[in-house]
Amino acid sequence: MGQLCGNLTGFTGRLMEAMSTENSTAPDGIEKADNCFLIEWTGYGPDGYEELTLNSVAAAKEKLAKYPVNWINVEACKDPLIFDQFRVAFNLHELAVEDCTTVHQRSKVEDYRSHLFIVTRMPLHMDSGETEQLGMFLGDRFVLCFQDEEGGDCLDTVRERIRKGYGDIRNHGSDYLCYAIIDAVVDAYFPVLNKLSERIDNLEDVILESDRKDISAEIHKMKREVLSLRRAVWPLRDAINTLVRDSHPFLSDTTRIYLRDCYDHIARIIDLVEMYRELTIDMMDIHLSMVNNRMNEIIKVLTVITTIFIPPTFIAGVYGMNFNPEVSKFNMPELNWFFGYFFALALMIFTSIAILALLRSKKWI
Amino acid sequence: MGQLCGNLTGFTGRLMEAMSTENSTAPDGIEKADNCFLIEWTGYGPDGYEELTLNSVAAAKEKLAKYPVNWINVEACKDPLIFDQFRVAFNLHELAVEDCTTVHQRSKVEDYRSHLFIVTRMPLHMDSGETEQLGMFLGDRFVLCFQDEEGGDCLDTVRERIRKGYGDIRNHGSDYLCYAIIDAVVDAYFPVLNKLSERIDNLEDVILESDRKDISAEIHKMKREVLSLRRAVWPLRDAINTLVRDSHPFLSDTTRIYLRDCYDHIARIIDLVEMYRELTIDMMDIHLSMVNNRMNEIIKVLTVITTIFIPPTFIAGVYGMNFNPEVSKFNMPELNWFFGYFFALALMIFTSIAILALLRSKKWI
Amino acid sequence: MGQLCGNLTGFTGRLMEAMSTENSTAPDGIEKADNCFLIEWTGYGPDGYEELTLNSVAAAKEKLAKYPVNWINVEACKDPLIFDQFRVAFNLHELAVEDCTTVHQRSKVEDYRSHLFIVTRMPLHMDSGETEQLGMFLGDRFVLCFQDEEGGDCLDTVRERIRKGYGDIRNHGSDYLCYAIIDAVVDAYFPVLNKLSERIDNLEDVILESDRKDISAEIHKMKREVLSLRRAVWPLRDAINTLVRDSHPFLSDTTRIYLRDCYDHIARIIDLVEMYRELTIDMMDIHLSMVNNRMNEIIKVLTVITTIFIPPTFIAGVYGMNFNPEVSKFNMPELNWFFGYFFALALMIFTSIAILALLRSKKWI
Amino acid sequence: MGQLCGNLTGFTGRLMEAMSTENSTAPDGIEKADNCFLIEWTGYGPDGYEELTLNSVAAAKEKLAKYPVNWINVEACKDPLIFDQFRVAFNLHELAVEDCTTVHQRSKVEDYRSHLFIVTRMPLHMDSGETEQLGMFLGDRFVLCFQDEEGGDCLDTVRERIRKGYGDIRNHGSDYLCYAIIDAVVDAYFPVLNKLSERIDNLEDVILESDRKDISAEIHKMKREVLSLRRAVWPLRDAINTLVRDSHPFLSDTTRIYLRDCYDHIARIIDLVEMYRELTIDMMDIHLSMVNNRMNEIIKVLTVITTIFIPPTFIAGVYGMNFNPEVSKFNMPELNWFFGYFFALALMIFTSIAILALLRSKKWI
Amino acid sequence: MGQLCGNLTGFTGRLMEAMSTENSTAPDGIEKADNCFLIEWTGYGPDGYEELTLNSVAAAKEKLAKYPVNWINVEACKDPLIFDQFRVAFNLHELAVEDCTTVHQRSKVEDYRSHLFIVTRMPLHMDSGETEQLGMFLGDRFVLCFQDEEGGDCLDTVRERIRKGYGDIRNHGSDYLCYAIIDAVVDAYFPVLNKLSERIDNLEDVILESDRKDISAEIHKMKREVLSLRRAVWPLRDAINTLVRDSHPFLSDTTRIYLRDCYDHIARIIDLVEMYRELTIDMMDIHLSMVNNRMNEIIKVLTVITTIFIPPTFIAGVYGMNFNPEVSKFNMPELNWFFGYFFALALMIFTSIAILALLRSKKWI
After folding, report:
1. What is the rounded distance in angstroms from the CA atom of residue C143 to the CA atom of residue C118?
2. ipTM of the shown complex
3. Fold for domain E293-361?
4. Closest residue, chain D, to A300 (C-alpha)
5. CATH classification for the domain delimited by A2-289, as one of 3.30.450.20, 1.20.1070.10, 3.30.460.20, 3.60.150.10
6. Residue D201 near chain E (CB below 8 Å)
């Protein structure tokens, strides 16, 4: 319950009226206490606009008559009964309503004579590939939206346009509102992609500079996000393309020109997503190459230290042998040389330097 | 034989009647003893429904008249003679019947004027990519299904809908039943994919944490399953698309709208399968990267221990030389120093610490 | 010559008649001695069938009148003159005949008004990706086949169907025979793929269990075979699709329905070939991963042995130094301790155990 | 402001006139002081041509009447007000003007009855994959260009053609000018690709000869550039294809033939970009292979040095043991041999040579 | 100049006549001295054929009247003036002539009402992926070819066919000549591919047997050649497809059937090129795997030698310690054992054998 009511906070800054029309539905009000949910309604026309938060389907239905365009927005509704009330009140197709209740739909457009049903997915956060489903019914005088998640969405620009009357929106019909919403949804992907691009750049820097062990996991995570985004935007492109290409009674040709613009945006988004995908694939290769390079560095140092000390150690071993110099003048005469010790040390230093010179001549150090 | 009879257990909870119509086919009954197989028949219409388990094709044929929609389901039948009886009784096309007897068909739709023949593949288990073939004939008043394997299937939701009359199913024709079956088949992939997703997540965790030697085999096995699933779902999409796109006399436009919904589901399934495929490919890379990282860890420790001990060992070797201090004051005078031993030990410790400092300055330890 | 005659053995079990019609072509018979080649002719109709082995083009031409369908099969013919005789006798297009003489054609269908020319490739052996070219001319009353290689082919099922009259083949025209041949060719790929699948499974087992050096060469060889198969089956699909899709005067609609079935089979074959291709690509990765894993194993053991012995060796080196205990009580007093030797051995054992414990704590051994 | 004025330097060598028509817009002039921007106008016809630098939209509008073709070029304009003036003056579509103000558009063609709107991207520098957006409006008598960046562009060849009257350009309409601009944009990619090809060749040489650590970063950078170029040229191909394929009232068939030529050029560019992409992918593999080869070289030398010194060191250790030769004739009798020392040295040299011979027999050194 | 004259040697074995028609163009002759270039002209018809080497465009133009088919071949012409003469004389389209002068065109077909313009690329050498551009104009009575490079080409078979009258070529029109040239160009790829296939096979053998350091560079070079070939043949396929598919006034239906044959050949060539591409990609993996395997071999030997000598060296170190046996009976009593030395040697041998046994039990040696 609190979950459904919770979206009240999402409506911050909007009018919340005790509506007289609601008073007549007192018994509904009681039921509402159990099952509190709120309908964000915005009606507008060339003459003005009005925003209300309603709490019953019947109230929303009643509002339709007043303005030529009515935007009804429902957030995070999970109650099948309410969906059914909407179905009856707005004469929606059963399958479309069902699709709204299941939350992992792909973006698509479906034409049920009396209304168009459009599913889109909008990004949830700036910094992940997660998306939220937005089911939209476009009818003669209304656009009915069902958002999957409560809380903030990317449609505030649309609300602002209606309030301020920007872009002549109030003189257009419900199809233009539908375009405005789709446009807002599509444009909401750009900040996500910018954020992603930034993170990819950061990760690339990290890859080139460090060999933290968790990097391959991080690259994999990023790739999953890109794949997830990709899975969201490709069907969106197809859906918008359907809207642009096919003629629908509710979509004026003018609006279709605007939707063509959305199509260009989503095409650009797809270009970027595909590019990021290639880059993430690439990053794994670079990471492995970097790890390899660092290992080479370590192996090299080991080589140098080991190969520098091995010959002197051998020489020390030789002069540590216990051959008896007394039984033969050939038995380790160096041991009795006046500068024998210095000779041995010189031999050691010479071999070490020789090895070093060899390694340097090969450009290994 | 027992194999054919075995599917009786699959019919648990359904009515098993001694039918009067069967009594007249006593000679068949004798042959049946040898070749026991059972036909699950469900007839329904707006007025009611009836479920029976029949044991001859003739009986099934006879039942057709009573209800407007008849669902005849045959499991794991391998006997060509029975297929031939069905072919004659229901006027099926020879090629379609042949396809039912071979068990590795791809999903497809074929239009033989008097009936539609639809092959789909439904998942066998939750935790593998294996699928079972379901051949379906859609005729005027009947849907005739041949399942490849005996035992449970994913059609119980359809049976339940018929029994309970959910979704108005009893008021629709056989094409709606056909849709309901395809819908059930398609939706049966979702739990399989959920399970797969879980297993992929688990495997990813294992990959990131351990270097078990059998992991690459396991990734390969998972990839095979994904490939196998993929091979099942792509043709299914094409088949459903054919149903949605092409107009057939037995498929009403209403049902085609419902099938469009199936199409969306299968498109989503394909999205997921393709994503899982990418992830499994990726996992191999991560696994190799992890194995590499661990090897680097080991090599590093070896490097450290070896390079720390090599210089002191060399110093010990030097002072183990047997140069005679008596013949010259330059021959290893340290041996006779008062703090010679401490000097040597200090030298050893110093070189070790110097090496350690070098390694640490390179951030290798 | 012997090469051309050699296919007589390929006709084992078939009738070989001294034909009266051949007697009149005695001068041909002399030329035949130089250039012996044999034409396998099968004529049939609803009323019966006849099989003969002819040795001149003229004889084959003469046979056409007797039966409504005539199958003329020529194996491993390389002589351009004979091809030219066929060209004239059957009114074939020059380009099509040329294609028959060059043996690396892709599968295709070409419509020369008076006849259809179909090239397919059939598998040569069960255990390789090699294929043999089969050029086929479909005319009004005849199917004329040119096989590239002598010896066995995959068309025995067709011969059997004609002899036994299975599948009503004798009541159909030459287009049905053409379908039957294509069907036999397509189905001949299934055993090849089964064999391949088996070999892939075997190779996977070998890869997971051993590190034989020749495995990567073997995987490469298998991949080449898969690529070669792939190169054979993709054009075959296109060719069959052309037959199914385009209407030709010689192809009845009924036969086109049968060819649709062939198309499904070839689509399945392509699915499998593509899957095997992915698996072979994957196998190389797994092989490399396995080789890497084994190398890690070896490196680990080296690490353990080396790092266990290095510190004790150092300690032994310390107590092998020759510092003079007589000049100072600080010079290696351990040498004169009562349990000095045991102390040193204990030190050695302790450091080794400490290293082992360290390695075990890291789970490296 | 300075930013807008800055493009004056880009107009070097062109006429800069104080126009009388501007005098009447004195108040504009004041606003201009704040918001200085310049419009490069070129008008031409069969009879002559004229080039001016204007500083108001109104002035540009006025010029249209004089010549049949007018090219108006605006660089780096960011002021929405100016865009709006253009929109009103030239009757442009709001969406198209919006697209000009956002700088990351994909290349595209949009048909707004009264004008065609074409977005292309032209390369910024010779040595990077960066591109600059060029929005172009093709109207009845004008081509209106908005360049994203100030400074030099690739359109000087077009300017030269107009001045010199090459290629009969002055006898063609505005569509031919539009073609000439697109042609210049497309051809501007060739030097970029040549430069890129050179850099790829250089990088390949570097890869094959050195193991600099930053190479993988460099390859990655180059790949990003190629991807970025690719992202610019693919949509450009689609846009030009649209112009070639679809008939527009402003595009004569003759011009469409010329555009077909552009299409061939862009197709060639795409071929090259795709090839470079494959080569960059490949380079990473080669780089890793080279790094691996060099590591093998180092490991080999380590192997040789270590394995050559280990056995002699062991022998020296043996003869450094302190077994007492006095208690037994079996205790290290070599120590008292006359040639004991030489024997030991010979043994050491022999084992080293044996090891060397073994390594050489394996062809490792 | 000498460059243009140089192709005279390319015409070896052809007639070189001092033509009377040329005498009238004496002033041209003088200009010719500066700008010597030669036109290979072949005219033929059902009644005969004639071959000449002309030296002016006008002469070539004059020749057109005599024979129904005229083949004019110009090699390595770089002079824009001559191209312009051709343009005027043969009424060619400006764009097509421009394309001839730029040497990196993709294969294409362009229909300029009065003539077809066809660009193809023919292989330059047997052993590289380089190609030479061949621009071809197909007009009513002529085929005009511009070859990019002087020297030999792959069109000698066409010349031979005309001379000998093979394949009825003299009874066909210029479109058939055009087909014959395209056919010769396409077939010229087969020897190149055979050579490539041989080189790939050789390289594979080298890869499997040696670890030469330059192999990865060689594989990369081969891949570049394959990519370059691929870039030449794909557009060629499209161009031929255009000829086959679209009807052109100059291309008779009969010739289109012949071109279909060319299309099959080029499709086969593409199949092969794609296969070689996959194989070259694969070869890099195998090469790396081989290098890895050899490194494993080396590491193994190092492991064995090192681990065999380390424990004995340690033992020698132990008995080289200087603990004083006189102060305690526990201090290294072995030194005074009768068989102490043998005991130590036995210990060393035993540990070495134990290590060897361990390694062998793991199947590492």
Report:
1. 10
2. 0.72
3. Methane Monooxygenase Hydroxylase; Chain G, domain 1 (1.20.58)
4. D298
5. 3.30.460.20
6. no
